[in-house]
Each structure stands twice: as structure tokens, then as C-alpha cells.
Specification:
Helices cover about 25% and strands about 25% of the residues. It has seven helices and 21 strands. Helix 1 packs across helix 4 and helix 1 packs across helix 7.
């Protein structure tokens, strides 16, 4: 999701016909295991290869994936119209090395939208072909140096004192830098970590595929995992170009930034975590027709699935298909503290989201 940390959304809960508490714990445990694997894999925009490998390895045996020139994963199943497209993105926010100083310090630039001061004076990892090199994001030299969205007043220190020593570690411009991350279960069904945006969407599509019988789908369904969403919908734009007018509906599976947190005003975006996925009616990049949302709500009710409806800022991969006349129906899950190192979700929302996507593929 192309969104700043702690952003807000408007939400209205509708069609809640089943409680997340009724989901069997083994299903939550299976979803948690899949998500933890994806979350603990690094893949900044432009360097999604490790995440792509995990997804390819988690597909059901009947799937015949293709990887296009951009690095997007395609899984096509079923035949006939309408053609429905599900799209989640594989990349996460982070930094790219722009230069190595003579003192061995690394200049960096953000990849994606977030608040740079969240990373300042924290541990770092430089991702090289030979493995991750431990480092730190340096503190600012003074309080007058203010971080901005376009740059940072700090550098990355790999613990050396010269450019040659940094290069000897395998460090080069163009490589990505993140902080270390870990999937951490919290109380109940909640969990925290970084890159839930959009590892949850990627996991939900895998969970949905595992429920499908490819011989019984009433029409063609395309599942996409795309690259470089965080820096401008690059992968989805390429996929939309390839599909052209052949797609009829696109479901962008991505974060819904919720105001269900101690920091946000409750008059905007109150979509509580743990009460089901969210159909995003309006954002800065798309508007979903009300009759389409109403149909989705009825589908969720028929299948006994919780669903919330809301609007938000930011954009979604489905908007890249708008030029081709494709109806964009973004569906997400409520998330706290988006684009930060401590995003928080409720795992039951992931399970229900997977069920909802499977129901859409087979019944709509």
C-alpha cells in the first residue's frame, strides 16, 4: 500500500455475520506459519526475488505459474468470461544505497513512502548477493537536521573506515537496506512485525488458491503477485498493459489503514482489527461503484464471512487497470501503524480474507 505510516481511513462496518472467534485455531496457526515465512523474507522494491521464490514454493501443485519480464508472478485458472484478476504486491519499503563515501559510510535514499525518522539510530541490514551485512542507521548529527520523505539526514554504517573496506564486504551502490525484522505473535490472535503490507495480501491469495478446484471454476481467474508497488504501481501497470481489455474486474488485495489504534482520531477510519476484511470503496486512486460493493457485501453474508466497508487515502494496484475500463474493487484487512517497524494485525482477518477471495473466485 502506497501510504505513510499512521495514516487514516474512513470506515463503516457492515455485513458482519460471523465472528472471527469462531475460526478454528488450526486454520489460524496455518495462516500464521505462512505469513511468518513471508514477513521474515526481505524484498524492498526492485529486489523482490527472495519473496517471489517463497510464493512460487507455496503454490498448490496444480498451479502453473509464469514469471513475466518485470518479475510479476501469474497464475491463471479457469476459462471463459468474466475474467477476474486478484493482485497483491511482493515489495516492501526500505532504502537503496546511492553511494559509498571514502569514510565507508553509505548514502541512502528511501524506496517507498514512510517516515524516515522511524529508522534512525536503529540496527540495519545491507542486502548483498553474498548475504546480509549487519549495520546501523546512524543518528543525526544535530537536531536541526530534519528528515524528509525524499531523503535522510543520516547514513548507514557497516563498521568500517574506508570505501575499500565496505566494498570488501560486498557492499555496492544499488543494493537495498532495511532494519532486521521478525514476525512476533502477540496476545490472542494478534501479531506484529514489518512488511505486513503487503505480505498479508500475498498470503491471502495463496490461502485462497489452496481452496480452489481448478476444474470447477465458472470463469477465468488470474492471480498476480506484482513488483514495485511502493514506488509507483510499476508491476501492476505492466500487468494491466498485458491484459488490456481482456480483464473485467480487478481485486487489489492490500492494506486498509485503520484508525483502530491509541494514536488516531476515532472519527475517521474506525475499522477494528479482528472484525474482518475491508472493502475499500474510495481512495485517492479509485472509486468502486456502490452496486458492486453491495454485491460483495451480499456475497460475504451468504458465505457467513465478516466484512467491513470503508474509504481511505493512498492508492492500490487495481487503479493501474482503470485505463482499460476494468472495475477496481480493492479489498484489504485493517492494519495498525502502517509502514512502520511495528505493524499490528489480527490473524483471523487474514483467514477470513482468504475465504472471501476463494468465494469471489468461485461464486462471483
Amino acid at each position: 500500500m502506497r501510504r505513510i505510516c499512521l495514516g487514516l481511513a474512513v470506515g463503516l462496518m457492515v455485513g458482519v455475520t460471523s465472528s472471527g472467534a469462531q475460526i478454528a485455531r488450526p486454520r489460524v496457526a496455518a495462516a500464521q506459519s505462512l505469513l511468518a515465512t513471508l514477513v521474515e523474507t526481505y524484498g524492498v522494491s526492485g529486489a523482490e526475488g527472495p519473496v517471489r521464490d517463497i510464493i512460487l514454493g507455496q503454490l498448490p501443485p496444480w498451479a502453473h505459474p509464469e514469471v513475466d519480464a518485470k518479475g510479476n508472478i501469474w497464475v491463471r485458472v479457469g476459462e471463459g468470461k468474466p475474467t477476474s484478476v486478484f493482485v497483491a504486491h511482493m515489495d516492501e519499503t526500505g532504502f537503496e544505497i546511492t553511494a559509498i563515501g571514502e569514510d565507508g559510510l553509505l548514502d541512502i535514499r528511501p524506496r517507498g513512502g514512510f517516515l524516515p525518522w522511524l529508522w534512525e539510530a536503529t540496527p540495519a541490514l545491507v542486502h548483498t548477493p553474498g548475504g546480509s551485512v549487519p549495520a546501523v542507521f546512524t543518528p543525526r548529527l544535530g537536531v536541526e537536521e530534519q528528515p524528509t520523505r525524499r531523503g535522510t539526514p543520516y547514513k548507514v554504517d557497516v563498521g568500517v573506515s574506508s570505501k575499500a573496506q565496505a566494498e570488501a564486504l560486498g557492499v555496492r551502490p544499488g543494493q537495498t537496506v532495511t532494519n532486521p525484522k521478525r514476525f512476533v505473535p502477540l496476545a490472542g490472535y494478534r501479531a506484529t512485525g514489518r512488511s505486513f503490507d503487503d505480505r498479508v495480501g500475498s498470503a491471502a491469495q495463496l490461502l485462497a488458491l489452496r481452496q480452489l478446484d481448478p476444474t470447477k471454476l465458472p470463469h477465468e481467474v488470474v492471480f498476480l503477485w506484482v513488483v514495485e508497488e511502493e514506488i509507483g504501481l510499476v508491476g501492476s501497470a505492466a500487468a494491466a498493459q498485458q491484459l488490456g481489455f481482456n480483464a473485467d474486474r480487478v481485486y487489489a488485495i492490500d492494506t486498509f489503514v485503520s484508525s483502530d489504534s491509541p494514536l488516531d482520531p476515532q472519527n475517521f477510519a474506525l475499522t477494528p482489527i479482528g472484525q474482518g476484511p475491508v472493502a475499500r470503496m474510495v481512495d485517492n486512486s479509485s472509486v468502486t461503484p456502490t452496486p458492486v460493493v453491495d454485491t460483495l457485501v451480499r456475497l460475504a453474508r451468504r458465505n457467513g464471512l465478516s466484512l467491513q466497508v470503508g474509504t481511505t487515502n493512498g492508492g492500490n494496484d487495481g487503479s493501474a487497470f482503470a485505463a482499460w475500463g476494468v472495475v477496481d474493487i480493492p479489498i484489504g484487512w485493517p492494519l495498525r501503524y502502517s509502514h512502520s517497524p511495528v505493524e499490528v494485525i489480527d490473524l483471523r482477518d487474514l483467514v477470513v480474507l482468504g475465504d472471501l477471495l476463494a468465494a469471489i473466485a468461485t461464486s462471483w
